[in-house]
Amino acid sequence: MISKQLLKTALSFALLGSLVTASPALATFGLEYLTPEQGAVVEVGILHAFHNTITNTGDEFDTFTVSVVKNFPDEWVGSICVGETCYPPFITEVEVPLGAGESAFLDMDITPNVNTGYGSCTLTVSSAGDPTIRPARDFTVVSTGLDLLLVTDDTNPEFTSYYTDALAGTGRTYGVWKQVEMGALSELDLMEFGTVVWSAGNLAGALDDDDRAALAYFVQHGGHLFLNGRDLAYEACDPGSPYYSAASQSWFNMILGTDYTGSVASNFANAE
Question: Rounded mean pLDDT of 75-102?
Answer without folding.
Answer: 97
